[in-house]
């Protein structure tokens, strides 16, 4: 849709790192090949100036700095005629130990030496139709600290066991954030009337972590700013083990931080994401409250495991600033670097691991309170395997992701369940997004056809194979018209118009069409004489019982779904 092209392309670019990756970090390399921002398709603001923040003598312990000690730098596009502001935080993974950070310090993820003097900035202030409002004052924050702007050490840190005995690292992420805000307030943000904090990938995590910190500054220093919002893009990284359950150490006990075994996600020994983030928390000296990069509210939740506050699933529920998140439940970066599994055809265990990862994503999202009753938060969750996701191409509950964002932003939806839109299908829409002839799905990483992995005997006598979901479905006694009406983890079956709990992948029997389901061949489940037949719901969503019998001629009450059905051709549910 032309009206929404600006914001959707903007978010596509937001959700990937700029071409700034250090070659030493395989977790970043896969996402570095992006073209620079351009004005095509109205994706961002025109060129603006690079701002390098000062490093005054006598303030060496507190001034902002990149990993290599060079000045922190960002891009700023002012607009004197607008009071709308966006601060957009770049991504680029994390450095998981000192060696990794030293390597980053030689490139554009850890040094400001080689930054171009001009670039572009992506506004996230939407218009009511979902298009981007390109008139905002925009700051594009370069990512130079390797820890989502959350660490701070007053003194440079020597790199242990480095071949370069003079190698030092400056961990000043929090100072970089605060100094950027100081600059913004000194250059017009004190007059702001609306503000959006956003960022993609590691910048999405930054958005979760710092939304309340930035909002508090706005409340104090921009009294006319009545609308402060956060929009994290692909920043909800799970607390999750990897597929091999490896911990960064080899079988012989070698490994750990600052060894190849530690940070390589595909070596077979790499640590899991939670171990990495725990080490980053300690290495970068993260603390809490006004002088720390993490929130005091989260610290009160996790007093014995404070590193969890560096992970969005564990701190999102204490965020007070209204936020709208964009994420995939099968995020490509997370599958590659958290789950650390491949998922080619025939890899049954890996395939099942990916499906479980999606379920775990929904579980952790629910626990974080996003979309809960009474919540101000909302979001769009796709099933596309992507990290730079085409949000303008996804239609959920009748609208694209950028349109739902605009509805939430302008109060058409008020947060809670009506503002959370989740595609609960299998990866890539159960295969519907796998057609790369359609340009919208070029960003969806290929995934094996779910039906090719199906076990035809997987559905039990208490389930039926949903012809649309291609999953074994356990019916509930809740009617629905969409997934939003169902409990977390359940889906609305369009055939029965009832909520169901999805189970294993299955292959619908070819004897039944898309308006029928095949009953399990168990006489204890269905009325005698109707086992092994295709059943058509005659009154979807309306439950039957002995007290509420079926009224249509020839219809009977199915004991599995508690719906009135008519029987058709014979079928074999195990076909």
Protein architecture, described:
This protein has 575 residues and is of the alpha+beta class. The chain folds into 2 domains: 2-441, no CATH class; 454-570, no CATH class. Helix content is 21%, strand content 18%. It contains 13 helices and 22 strands. It has helices at residues 5-14, 26-29, 98-104, 173-186, 202-221, 260-263, 273-283, 296-301, 312-315, 332-337, 348-367, 401-409, 427-430; strands at 45-52, 73-77, 84-89, 118-121, 137-141, 157-158, 168-169, 194-200, 227-233, 324-328, 378-382, 395-396, 399-400, 420-422, 464-465, 471-479, 491-493, 498-505, 517-518, 533-537, 556-557, 564-570. It is globular and about 90 Å long. Mean pLDDT is 85; it is low at 1-23, 26-43 and 521-529.
Compact description:
Helices cover 21% and strands 18% of the residues. It is α+β, with helices and mostly antiparallel strands and 575 residues long.
**What does the radius of gyration come to?**
26 Å
Straight-line N-to-C gap: 41 Å
Report low-confidence residues grouped into runs of 5 or more. Answer: 1-23, 26-43, 521-529
What does the average pLDDT come to? 85
Instruction: Count the beta strands.
Output: 22
> How are the strands ordered across the major sheet?
4-1-2-5-3-8-9
What is the 3D shape?
Answer: globular
**How many domains in all?**
2
Oligomeric status = single chain
- The helix fraction, in percent, is 10-25%
Number of helices: 13
Structural class: alpha+beta
The largest sheet, given as strand count, sense and whether it forms a barrel, is: 7 strands, mixed
